[in-house]
Design brief:
Largest sheet of chain B: 9 strands, mixed
Number of helices of chain B: 15
Helix content of chain A: 25-40%
Shape of chain B: globular
Number of helices of chain A: 10
Structural class of chain A: alpha/beta
Structural class of chain B: alpha/beta
Oligomer: heterodimer
Bound molecules: NADP nicotinamide-adenine-dinucleotide phosphate
Number of domains of chain A: 2
Number of strands of chain A: 18
Radius of gyration of chain A: 23 Å
Shape of chain A: elongated
Largest interface: A-B, 52 and 35 residues
Distance between the termini of chain B: 54 Å
């Protein structure tokens, strides 16, 4: 019995053992709306992921399947554990979600797919959370049965190469595969807040004359900062500046952009160890500053609209920092992620600069 | 120029910044519902920046005292809990305006205050007037707003009004109120609140019906035997509500608005689009097609009214209706009503709808149940016990929102015996996240100019027309149908059971 993963059971009798979990139980309700599969090649990931699932199932009932690939052992083997995460719903009813955890050793091809798919709840959507680099295992035609693929491009050492693999997977997918990048999720509240601030006619009328964009980010979250910049530039109709190359000086990267009417806009990305994942987004036009900021760990974003006449401040919620919170937020929003698809090419251009 | 950052971001119409003026701001509704709703919108980052709130009421209060009182209640009732970090900046935008509802000078000062806010902002702003006063003040408030010129918006801005319930007490008063409202605000700027429409399951009714291919083909007289709408309350007249209730009664307080709104969502044809008028055009057709119970005889045959006598709820003794606080001991007001309704349309021909609403019933519960006709049981009729009942689709509105479907299944064993089983979907179990309060959604919709979930003038008037006949038979005819009785804590009078029994149906046991 593992305190986190539960009881170890033979792979062949997982279903029987799961049924036993519920047989003697009249108090708990077993619920699930999705199949959630996590995959990691990191040793020790199962326990971490189990803790994440425990958090996540407070709001998202799911059948969870956790997979870890142990590359240190060559002989092929599979071990499995089962448990359930239970929470009191509205202080009354105990709602539980089943979890199956697997460790694969040796070459995994075929076995992995079949084992995972053999234990899905039928008819429920499959959310597949691939953690880390998109390795060979990922390429095993998995994408053909996934509804949502969760990745975190900020965890990739070589984002360009990984995005190439990702695009192959999306292209070969038979379903309408929705990719959800946690780096993109981390920009959500910033985007909402920016949109909210540009509802103000003063800010909106200053949009054509924006001269600088400044983004401060934690060094681990460059991907989010770049996606945010890509989104802003696409929505505002800015082009990449001609003839000028992006430059890098110490922790500051500069990207030359050009407005619809052809005036130059300087965008800078600043990496700062003490910053929140995204610490600051500031757009400046003559006489108008739109600023959204967050101190590391804070639960709120501070929104400031500063004009020569006055300034308005308000708070807005911040995006969660932890993976459970981010995945939860994504699941709650659903959708087809069309905006991400729209922004991706520009992001890749900026990434390539 | 449109805001390009809004594109593709969220799928709802965009709320616009405005100044919200609440009339009756020291009252219960403002403290328990309206301000906590605005606060929770701020928590979720949904409240547009720059929203200001002005509370309008009679007693002397400083801004600080007003905010203090709101803070105290927000701590107790806020859906997402209370966070001083959010409340701080949020409450800085709240101020208090002391005035009598009938004092022209008070509105002049209000106009000046609104102008000062515009000046501070550097431009003209939108205004949302929320009338949360007792109904006798609706007229004077609207007229005074007009006299002060506050109904007119500056170019490029809007001026809207939200009117609380009750919207009139009969057709004549509703028509009069509509005239006063429409003489002050355009119909498109008028938002008659019915908070039932802001509830998640009420909105889900349309999704259930029109986004699932399996229900709509069955949603007609060919497959449906009848439909029941129940709104049960276990409370009586606690907290002084007897004073208001004894003048209104169950039919006017709940059926005219909330339950007829639910009925129209269940029974309407698919709208051509999801626009406010697209949806409301279809809803009003349902109300317009109700067969009218326009004689005392028809009322006696199709409507049951009742009062409760002393009884027990949850083990505690409770008084009878006429013994309740602030209720006239000789009251002829109904605390329970059951109505059989017929909708004269192609789709619903011959399908009775039964609505019941009562106080001091065994538990609090609002639900709609759709009872399907039995399958042709040529195969299983001969079995001992026959086939146990038809399929029932239940849409629970509150509490414990959800949907369930009853079907017939074989009992395990070597012999063939049939039993009903239930497929059940609970929002709270499946989606751990709580739904926003109805008022949050509705306030945001009003700021966005989306009137889909608000009642339109013709809906309100058609509903009153139907209700008026019944009220008339009860209170003004020579041979009024009798008042039935039931023991508090039971499921209503025997007469209501008989009403369904005549048609070969029975109320669903909740
Ligand atoms: N409470 C609810 O949960 C609820 C639910 C649905 C609908 N409603 C509807 O909402 C409306 C308000 O309900 P409520 O419970 O909030 O009422 P309430 O607690 O009685 O509050 C009445 C408000 O009106 C003010 N007022 C009364 N006479 C006034 C005058 N002559 N001049 C200026 N202000 C005056 C009071 O101010 P002072 O205190 O300063 O005198 C107070 O702020 C009613 O139409 C009710 O039917 C209420």
């Amino acid at each position: 019995m593992d305190p986190e993963l539960g009881e170890e059971v033979p792979v062949a009798s997982i279903d029987k053992e799961l049924r036993k979990l519920w047989e003697a139980d009249e108090v708990h309700t077993n619920a699930s709306l999705i199949n959630l599969v996590t995959c990691s090649e990191q040793t020790g990931s199962l326990r971490q992921n189990s803790a994440i699932i425990r958090e996540l199932t407070r709001e998202h009932a799911c059948r969870a399947i956790l997979v870890e690939f142990d590359r240190t052992v060559e002989i092929p083997s599979i071990r499995a554990w089962i448990t359930a995460h239970c929470h009191l719903a509205e202080g009354k009813k105990s709602v539980c979600c089943e979890q199956i955890a697997f460790v694969f050793t040796g070459r995994v091809t075929g076995r992995f797919r079949n084992t995972v798919f053999g234990h899905l709840n039928s008819d429920l959507p499959l959310v597949f959370w691939w953690q880390g680099e998109l390795s060979d295992v990922f390429r095993e035609r998995l994408s053909s049965v996934i509804d949502r693929l969760v990745i975190d491009s900020s965890s990739w050492a070589d984002p360009v190469a990984n995005f190439v693999r990702l695009n192959e997977a999306v292209a070969s997918s038979t379903l309408d595969l929705v990719v959800q990048d946690l780096a993109w999720t981390r920009t959500w509240q910033y985007r909402l807040s920016l949109a909210g601030m540009f509802d103000d006619p003063v800010a909106l009328s200053a949009l054509p004359s924006i001269e600088t964009v400044r983004i401060v980010h934690h060094p681990k979250h460059r991907s989010s900062a770049l996606q945010l910049l890509a989104w802003i530039s696409i929505q505002a109709g800015w082009r990449q500046g001609l003839g000028l190359a992006a430059s890098h000086e110490g922790p500051v990267e500069t990207f030359p952009l050009e407005s619809k009417s052809g005036h130059a806009i300087t965008a800078s990305l600043e990496a700062d160890e003490s910053s929140a994942p995204l610490g600051l987004l500031e757009l400046n036009a003559p006489g108008v500053t739109v600023r959204i900021s967050r101190t590391a760990g804070a639960a709120h974003l501070l929104r400031e609209l500063i004009t020569s006449a006055n300034s308005q401040t308000s708070l807005a919620p911040a995006d969660p920092d932890d993976d459970a919170g981010l995945v939860g937020a994504q699941l709650a929003r659903g959708g087809k992620n069309t905006l991400y698809r729209k922004v991706l090419p520009r992001f890749l251009e900026l990434l390539g600069d | 120029m449109t805001n390009p950052f809004r594109e593709d971001l969220v799928s709802r119409s965009r709320p616009e910044s405005c100044t919200v003026v609440i009339f009756g701001a020291t009252g219960d509704l403002t403290h328990r519902k309206l301000v906590p709703a605005l606060y929770n919108l701020a928590v979720d980052g949904e409240l547009p920046t720059g929203v200001k709130i002005i509370g309008f009421a009679r007693r002397e209060k400083s801004d600080a005292e007003f905010r203090e009182g709101l803070l105290e209640l927000n701590r107790k009732v806020s859906r997402s809990g209370h966070d001083d970090a959010i409340w701080g900046p949020f409450s800085e935008n709240i101020s208090y305006h002391q005035s009598e509802f009938t004092d022209p000078d008070g509105y002049k000062r209000l106009a000046e205050r609104l102008d000062a806010i515009d000046q501070e902002r550097g431009r003209k702003g939108n205004r949302l007037f929320y009338i949360a006063s007792a109904p006798e003040f609706f007229d004077p408030i609207l007229i005074s707003l007009k006299e002060a010129g506050l109904n007119e918006a500056a170019p490029g801005c809007w001026s809207r009004v939200i009117v609380e319930k009750p919207f009139g007490t009969d057709l004549a008063t509703a028509k009069h109120l509509n005239e006063v409202v429409n003489a002050t605000f355009h119909e498109s700027d008028t938002y008659r609140i019915d908070h039932y429409l802001g509830k998640e399951t009420a909105q889900n009714l349309m999704v259930l019906r029109f986004a699932n291919a399996i229900f709509e083909p069955l949603w007609n007289s060919r497959y449906i035997s009848h439909i029941q709408i129940t709104c049960a309350e276990n409370l009586g007249m606690e907290g002084g509500r007897g004073g208001y209730y004894d003048h209104a009664g169950a039919l006017r307080d709940m059926v005219q608005n909330h339950l007829l709104q639910l009925l129209s969502l269940v029974a309407m044809e698919p709208p051509t689009d999801l626009s406010a008028d697209g949806v409301r055009d279809e809803k009003v057709k349902v109300i317009r097609s109700l067969r009218q119970w326009d004689t005392p005889e028809k009322v006696a045959a199709n409507v049951v009214r009742a009062q409760y006598t002393a009884g027990h709820i949850d083990g505690a003794a409770v008084p009878g209706y006429r013994e309740e606080d602030r209720v006239n001991p000789e009251s002829t007001t109904e605390a329970y009503v059951a109505v059989r309704l017929l909708i004269d349309t192609w789709r619903w021909s011959g399908v009775p709808f039964y609505i019941r609403m009562g106080k001091r019933l065994p538990k609090k519960s609002t639900e709609i149940s759709v009872h399907f006709k039995p399958a042709p049981c040529v195969l299983f009729n001969a079995l001992p016990g026959g086939v146990p009942g038809g399929n029932v689709l239940v849409i629970r509105i509150q509490p414990d929102e959800g949907i369930s479907l009853r079907m017939v299944s074989k009992l395990p064993g070597t012999s063939l015996r049939l039993e009903p089983v239930k497929m059940d979907f609970h929002y709270a179990t499946s989606f751990g996240k709580g739904s926003p309060e109805a008022y949050e959604r509705l306030l945001l919709d009003a700021m966005a100019g989306d009137a889909t979930l608000f009642a339109r003038r013709d809906e309100v008037e058609e509903a009153w027309k139907f209700i008026d006949h019944i009220e008339h038979a009860w209170h003004q005819s020579d041979n009024p149908p009798p008042m039935a009785n039931f023991t508090a804590g039971s499921w209503g009078p025997k007469e209501a059971d008989d009403l369904l029994d005549q048609d070969g149906h029975a109320w669903r046991r909740l």
